[in-house]
Amino acid sequence: MALAGAGLTVPTAAEAATGCRVTYAVTNQWQGGFGANVTITNLGDPVDGWTLTWSYAGGQTVTQAWNATVTQSGAQVTAKNVSYNGALATNAETSFGFNGAWRDDNPAPTGFTLNGTKCTGAPSVPSPSSTPTRNPSPNPTPTTSPVPGGSRKMENLGRGVVAVRSNSTNVLVTWRLLGLDPDGIGFNVYRSTAGGSWVKLNSSVLTKGTNFVDSTADLTRSTSYRVRPVIGGDEQSPSEAFTLSANHAVEPVVRVPLRSGGPVKFVWVGDLDGDGEYDYVLDRQTSPQKIEAYRRDGRFLWQVDMGPNSTNQNNIEGGSSTIDVGNWDGVTVADLDSDGRAEVAVRIANGVTFGNGAKFTQSDNNRQYIAILDGMTGAARATAAVPTDYLSDGPMYARFGVGYLDGVNPSLVAFMKNRIGSGDFNLMESAWKFDGKTLALQWKWRRGNQNAPDGHNTRIIDVDGDGKDEVAEIGYVLNGNGTLRYSLGPKGVVHGDRFHIAKMDPSRPGLQGYGVQQDNPSGLREYYYDAATGTMIWKHVEDGVTDVGRGMAGDIDPRFPGMEVWSFSGVYNAATNRLTESDTSLRPWPQMGLWWDGDLTMELLNDGKFEKWDPDNPTPTNRTPRLLNISQYGAVDAAQGVNPTLVGDILGDWREEVVYTNASYDELIIFTTNQPTTTRLYTLAHNPAYRNAMTLKGYMQSHHVDYFLGAGMTKPPRPDITYVR
Known about the structure:
The chain is an all-beta fold.
């Protein structure tokens, strides 16, 4: 096996007869398991339905597959097409993938047979007038080597190709630039119509934005797109393809079918099956509550029933297995053991039924546990008891997230509270390590009588630039070892709903924080501080006491350096503490930010409306210029509020997707940009701060990268990461 690009590639030699070519690539490998991708090129007559067979010499077994139906008898493996990829024209290609298991060795198969014909890589009857046009070798030795990664173990993502019809004639195709792609990497875009041969669309290698407008497609037929990276002039392996159905709707939307069920509040993403693309985990706000998992194309995987202790979820002191109530979630998704496949972490109690049908039984309904679920089956791979320090006050609500507290390995972080009688709250934070077999407590921190104000959100981010993450709340920060780094309590901060940590001032070292306050008796409304030290930079104090329930940070005014911050007292340039518009009523609503249109100032997301504030023509909050409304496409806000179920860079280039459901809750409606851009940035999901933020919920807020992203920005540094395999 030879290392090439981002995966382990095992090209198999042609060996006997004619008619087809097969490329077999091991995309990742771990102890006892591996993932593989198989690409078939039909060099003979067109076929309508295919069967590919091969044999394993090392005792390997296929465990699950996608884009094909795979069975195995002894050493022989049989893969058959699924409904949408059975037609293969002459010179057409199709790909499928699978995960497998191995024992002592994992040698590649030595030969393949397609519909009874051995694949040799040559056409069965060469045309007398021409030789079939072939793409370059899928894995040439690159003249520019991929850049070595750092120490933080992150997802080995694919290209995430996505296509939407932007108008009656045009399709926008976008794809990921990965965090460790070498400088100078380019791309070619290919299209296949109705399963026919792949045709290159661009005349020269694309080296600017990772998107392409196709205006020549026959959109009355199914249309597929994929990209090939180009390194040092050599084409690399093709990406997975994305297909638009015939006569597809003109909409900036990807629709993923779901089973029928109740309202959804949250969606999480993670690579559950190890194919390099994100799958979906969601809640059902039924009684009892449920958790469901789906592959990226909507294939149902499993359901967890949260049991009778989740039936009183609307009570502030609800049941011990309730999830996703208010600012409490108790669920997250991440590859916690760095094996290339994501797990699901959930806080559980007596009566929970896992995805494999096993029931979790305890004699005490108040005792709680954390379970790590297998992403493909929903079975519990490990459980551990929640510390019982505050058990006498009942079960604890939880917020979950993931960070790299040692700078290398992911940890599950749990923020947990319960009420003391009818008054104050106990607060405990803890960190957990899952090694693939057991879940172990790394540390716990109890607030006790310390002046350490909390809020409704957690951020896990490297505040001091040492490569290791800290755990930040609205009024304090914990070091990665669970000790208190600083508190903003002695500086006048109390409870609040929203706060942000980002590179708000590109001229100032490090990261900055911005928060708003709820009923602060001093009249403090909002504040701006150094995220590493807690040093206050400025405060805004007004007469009276009020609940400032919203606060935003993002670059929305290119006339001023860095980001703007705003709640309800006007839009301020963070670095200068200066109003960018003197009339404070002319400001956007401080709900959420969104990267959508491709320029370097932020768009806004407000109760299902995508908006763009115009600093040259400022308007009142209720008249901010609108780009689209989700209701135009049948989408509805998530359960319990005015938010989507997820915002994140989960498909295509660096712009963000916004995930809703339809009103029947049987479809995910994923909004993805339909606007081209020349701006090239590596996928936000490979930025450590941003990827951590995607694992956190609470009161939903915008995610931030750890570099300045805005007007006048410089090229961001390469992330200090390594891909898991």
